[in-house]
UniProtKB/TrEMBL annotation:
<dbReference type="Pfam" id="PF01321">
    <property type="entry name" value="Creatinase_N"/>
</dbReference>
<dbReference type="InterPro" id="IPR000587">
    <property type="entry name" value="Creatinase_N"/>
</dbReference>
<protein>
    <submittedName>
        <fullName>Xaa-Pro aminopeptidase</fullName>
    </submittedName>
</protein>
<dbReference type="InterPro" id="IPR029149">
    <property type="entry name" value="Creatin/AminoP/Spt16_N"/>
</dbReference>
<feature type="domain" description="Creatinase N-terminal">
    <location>
        <begin position="8"/>
        <end position="138"/>
    </location>
</feature>
<keyword id="KW-0031">Aminopeptidase</keyword>
<dbReference type="Pfam" id="PF00557">
    <property type="entry name" value="Peptidase_M24"/>
</dbReference>
<keyword id="KW-0645">Protease</keyword>
<dbReference type="InterPro" id="IPR000994">
    <property type="entry name" value="Pept_M24"/>
</dbReference>
<feature type="region of interest" description="Disordered">
    <location>
        <begin position="189"/>
        <end position="213"/>
    </location>
</feature>
<feature type="domain" description="Peptidase M24">
    <location>
        <begin position="146"/>
        <end position="348"/>
    </location>
</feature>
<dbReference type="GO" id="GO:0004177">
    <property type="term" value="F:aminopeptidase activity"/>
</dbReference>
<dbReference type="InterPro" id="IPR050659">
    <property type="entry name" value="Peptidase_M24B"/>
</dbReference>
<keyword id="KW-0378">Hydrolase</keyword>
<dbReference type="InterPro" id="IPR036005">
    <property type="entry name" value="Creatinase/aminopeptidase-like"/>
</dbReference>
Length: 368
């Protein structure tokens, strides 16, 4: 992997050099991990001038979940654990007589920005912007392989829960059990806080599990994902508890299922982000559910669970191949509950079979 990280850093170097900066400082943890192989707590990555340096406030603990630093990088541990690696990086750039440094202004606090200026007052600070996030957008096959394993783990955890007795158990208990099962199957942890919603809570996006107990006839919505080697996936499913579903539950489920399928089928290279959103949203709008729909139909996943692209009505841009995204439309009826169906897929050209579905748990409306 060292060669992969070196290539990524080389691409970034080309970008900031072309913009007139002598060096770049990467502080956002996911971006540090993407370029350095690991992101120890508090670590920052300085690219040039000279060699690239990973600066850490304390020695890395060797936690596999946080990755392993690229051996081609120089690793520098600050002499005092309460020191700020950002300030140390500014001092290092100053000592090398560089006159400019590109920084991630969207990640730096004003206080840290001022602290850098205090140790290197003549250093010109430029905005690196979202350059690293743009590099992260298209995944290589090794990244996709990690996402594929994360999805397999997630499917396993969800499948085992569906085989257990659910009536009488609380949303909170079910969420904790799902997260334990993720780890049991090899995840480094959950990709995000697991959501379980029953009855009137079902179908809500990112519902925080409560002490409400599962009852006969409820809709049960779950949304979970595994974190595997830093890469995160997402799955959401809705089921009916105990009995055959009511007519209104079947109709609502069929509608959301059709919207989700339309969104998945729209995932082709070159498709506009907003067109993917429109494909799913149009069906829900036409059925009278425009009010209360979530802001976007899906989003990118990778080293973060919610990254670009955003599949939203006003989003600008077009899909590339090898971009993993979620498609997750849902409808929630206040006081009654609702349906949410969520998959993680990788955009692929039609010649390669179209979008690759990573989360494969059945989308049939099951009565559990």
């Amino acid at each position: 992997m060292s060669e992969v990280y070196a290539v990524r850093r080389g691409l970034l170097r080309d970008r900031y050099s072309a913009a007139g900066s002598a060096a770049a400082l990467v502080t956002r943890p996911a971006n540090v991990r993407y370029l350095a192989g690991a992101a120890p707590p508090g670590a920052v990555l300085l690219l040039g001038p000279g060699e690239d340096v990973l600066l850490c406030p304390r020695p890395p603990a060797g936690d596999p979940a946080r990755g392993r630093p690229d051996e081609q990088l120089r690793l520098t541990v600050l002499p005092a654990p309460d020191g700020d690696p950002v300030v140390a990086a500014a001092g290092l750039v100053r000592s090398l007589d560089a006159d400019s440094l590109a920084v991630e202004e969207h990640d730096l606090t004003v206080a840290r920005h001022r602290a850098m200026a205090s140790v290197a007052p003549h250093l010109r600070l430029a905005d690196l912007g979202f350059t690293v996030e743009q590099l992260r957008l298209v995944k290589d096959e090794e990244e996709i392989a990690c996402l594929r394993i994360a999805a397999e783990i997630t499917d396993q955890a969800l499948g085992e829960l569906l085989e257990s007795i659910l009536v009488g158990r609380t949303e909170r208990h079910l969420a904790l059990e799902l997260e334990r099962r993720l780890v049991d199957h090899g995840a480094d942890g959950p990709a995000f806080p697991t959501s379980v919603g029953t009855g009137p809570h079902s179908g809500q996006g990112r519902h925080r599990p409560s002490d409400r107990r599962v009852e006969e006839g409820d809709f049960l919505s779950v949304c979970l994902g595994a974190n595997y080697r830093g890469y995160r996936c997402e799955i959401g499913r809705t089921f009916v508890i105990g009995t055959a579903p009511a007519e209104w539950q079947i109709e609502l489920y069929d509608l959301v299922f059709a919207a989700q399928r339309a969104g998945r089928e729209a995932l082709v290279p070159g498709a506009a982000y907003r067109d993917v959103d429109r494909a799913a949203r149009h069906l829900l709008d036409s059925a009278g559910h425009a009010e209360g729909l979530q802001a976007c139909t899906g989003h990118g996943v990778g080293l973060e669970i919610d990254e670009d692209p955003q599949l939203a009505p006003t989003a600008m841009g077009k899909l590339d191949a090898c971009v993993p995204v979620t498609v997750e439309p849902g409808v929630h009826l206040p006081g009654r509950g609702g349906v949410r169906i969520d998959d993680t897929l990788v955009v692929r050209p039609e010649a390669d079979g179209g979008p690759e579905l990573l989360t494969i748990t059945t989308k049939e409306l099951l009565a559990l």
